[in-house]
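A further point concerns the way the authors explain their paired sequence and structure data. Each protein is reduced to its one-letter sequence and a matching series of backbone shape codes. An entry of this sort, consisting of the sequence and the corresponding backbone structure tokens, reads as follows:
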Amino acid sequence: MVLLKPTYIIDGDITDINLDHLREAGVRGIIFDLDSTLLAPKSNVVSTEVEAWLKKVHENFRVVILSNNKKDDYVKQAEKLFGMPAIARAAKPRRWGFQKSLEILKLPAEQVVVVGDRPLTDVLGGHRAGIKTVLVRALKTIEEPAWKTFFRNLERCFIKN
């Protein structure tokens, strides 16, 4: 269960992450999950709040997107939209996508965090690759079906104490 416990838990979405705290902790790079973390799934529409927050991220960190999404065109559009490299078909929690992300960032694992909304993919995969993790909730602007919220809450049961 230790591999499912995130290094940091944010009770909000990515915009609630304190970037100063990450810098003080020695973080120089961020690996972002895509769907529900940066964007509403299948939308390619960025909220103004996320856009403003990401501007600060780009000023202070090296960044990459790591997504399990299998739609290459969609992930390429996200790459252009966010102005950061993106890897599709990551098969998280497998290590290879995280290792490829570290190569792109040109940083050691100790200086990077994985930011995502899923303990069983983002957190587990990040820890398996030796990277700190930040678990966030899905974007505030997303209205998910009840079944999806149920499974998200069920996953979070594994990380409590």
